[in-house]
Amino acid sequence: MQLYGLTGGIATGKSTVAQMFVDKGVPLIDADVVAREIVGKGQPALAEIAARFPGVVDATGALDRAALGARIFSNPSERAALDAITHPRIRQAVLEKSIALAEANTPRALYDAPLLIENRLHEGLAGVVLVVAPRDVQLARLMARNQLTRAQAEARIDAQMPLDEKRSAATWVIDNGGTREATQAQVDRVWKELLEREQALELR
């Protein structure tokens, strides 16, 4: 099975692009979904988080994401502590999902992870699709989606690795700053090239 990575900056519209690939029949392994699963009620990771970050589990025993976010945002050491709890479990869960797809003779799958390149998870993948958008588009989307001020939105964007730095690790770049039709045309082009690469590998 060929496993491809999908990543991008905040508010670049990565989910839209992911769905376009899903519509082509590509199974999606979503790191954000996996991350939510491993911190569900009763999960070992949640118990560790509760011990390390008192007050971030609500009265029902569920993770209070807003409280946790407030603790780790702009605090690298706190974020690193959370990553140490969650990242190994996320990697294991993703591996298990990948193995299950391979055993089902799935020809290819897409691994959607916001920090794919930052965490060097792209190494060893069959290719990486990077979703980008102009900064002003990111800001407008983020301010509207999360009800943030411009300064807050800029802080969220600046906390991430710059998109230009991610380009060097990308096999394909999709600019999702325009119309949906323009994005779809780019996805179609990537899909064609992806299949051609797979064919070339089979002929070797």
Overview of the structural elements:
This protein is an alpha/beta fold and 204 residues long. It has two domains: 1-27 and 107-204, Rossmann fold; 33-105, no CATH class. Helix content is 54%, strand content 12%. The protein is built from nine helices and five strands. It has helices at residues 14-22, 31-38, 44-52, 65-72, 76-103, 135-146, 150-158, 163-166, 180-203; strands at residues 2-8, 28-30, 108-112, 127-132, 172-175. A five-stranded parallel β-sheet has the order 2-3-1-4-5, with helices on both faces. Helix 2 (31-38) packs across helix 5. The longest helix has 28 residues, at 76-103. The mean pLDDT is 95.
Which secondary structure elements does this structure contain, and how are they paired or packed?
Layout: E1 2-8, H1 14-22, E2 28-30, H2 31-38, H3 44-52, H4 65-72, H5 76-103, E3 108-112, E4 127-132, H6 135-146, H7 150-158, H8 163-166, E5 172-175, H9 180-203
Parallel strand pairs: 1-3, 1-4, 2-3, 4-5
Helix pairs in contact: 2-5, 3-5, 6-7
